[in-house]
Amino acid sequence: MGPQTGESDPRFRCHEDYYKKMKATHDILIIENVPEYSVKIPASHLGCDWRLESAVIDPRHLGIPASRARLFVLAWNTRKVKFRGDVCFGCFGTFFEMITKYVAYHT
Length: 107
Prior knowledge:
Blueprint: H1 13-25, E1 28-33, H2 40-46, E2 50-57, E3 70-77, E4 81-83, H3 95-102, E5 103-106
């Protein structure tokens, strides 16, 4: 692993650019990163209109022969996306299943 300098690393600017662009063009985001990536980072860049739910998923628990766990964050703009019920990562096999079952409407 390389040095972990976080937001002080000049390369972090690409994260800032990503959130700015995605926030302007998408209402639902799936963000993937290392488990140590703080959910506070996307939360601070997306703003108070966005809700985030996260889970660390180890691919070995899904029968995938890879040993690196990953952080997945589901983020949605609460002004434009409404869910029919509580968002629950453990209830569905995929994000797609969760989104298609629970998105009530998207404006």
